[in-house]
Amino acid sequence: MDVTELARDVAERTGLSREESADIVRAVLEGVSDQLSEGEARHLAVEVSEPLAAELAARPRHRTEAHPVSVDDFVRQVSARTGQPDREARAGVGAVLATMRQTLSDEDYGHLMGQLPAAYAELAQAVG
């Protein structure tokens, strides 16, 4: 996934600026990566363009298994990290996940979403 394209798509879906969208993309990808098992996090890093791919791969892992958080907690984390209100952060999270659904293979997206609560897929579905 090209991160610049991803941010552009998020901006189009949400009405946020490209800079705001780029911040949300980074926060979502890093936050999702932190929730995944070590193997899935490495796989996600391979799917993302540089330089973010290297940053995701280098993130310290404290567990080998998945450690998901609720989608509401995740939206709050993205909101706090980006300075966006919860509403915009929720729209941004959904837009990133929806774009990932379109960009990744069905198998890769299924593996990714299989480690997160069902509400993440529902949020991506709601955005379209």
Helix-strand layout with pairing:
Elements (H helix, E strand, L loop, with lengths): L2 H12 L3 H18 L2 H10 L4 H7 L12 H12 L3 H18 L2 H9 L3 H10 L1
Helix pairs in contact: 1-2, 1-6, 2-3, 2-5, 2-6, 3-4, 5-6, 6-8
Oligomeric state, counting identical vs distinct chains: single chain
Main sheet: strands, sense, barrel = none
Distance between the termini: 18 Å
Mean pLDDT: 90
Strand content: under 5%
Report the principal-axis shape.
globular
Integer-rounded radius of gyration: 13 Å
Q: Specify the number of helices.
A: 8
Please count the beta strands (DSSP E, at least 2 residues each). Answer: 0
Order of helices and strands: HHHHHHHH
Which keywords apply here?
mainly alpha, 128 residues, 0% strand, single chain, 8 helices
Structure description:
By secondary structure, the chain is mostly helical. Helices cover 75% and strands 0% of the residues. The protein has a domain at 3-32 and 70-127. It contains 8 helices and no strands. α3 (38-47) packs antiparallel against α4 (52-58). The longest helix has 18 residues, at 18-35.
